[in-house]
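Bumping with the actual sequence this time:
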Amino acid sequence: MKYSEIYVKRILSLCKERGISINKLANMSDVKQSTLDNIVRGITQSPGAVTLHKIAIAFNMTLAEFLNFDELNLYSFEDDND
């Protein structure tokens, strides 16, 4: 799995878990709908820390909590072919 796919999976998982659509997340996070769509579709593969921080806050999490999950913590850049 590519690095960028890991946090997309995290966003989609948290949305599903909390019953939040991407559109609602955009409103809650003050991140443009088009920006979130581009992240989720893999067009934007390296969103900035500010964007990820806003998304984390929308989920009522710190950025550290948002980024603290097994798939990301266990990721090996040696396996990345980008």
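The tokens above came from a reply further down the thread. The chain has one domain: 3-79.
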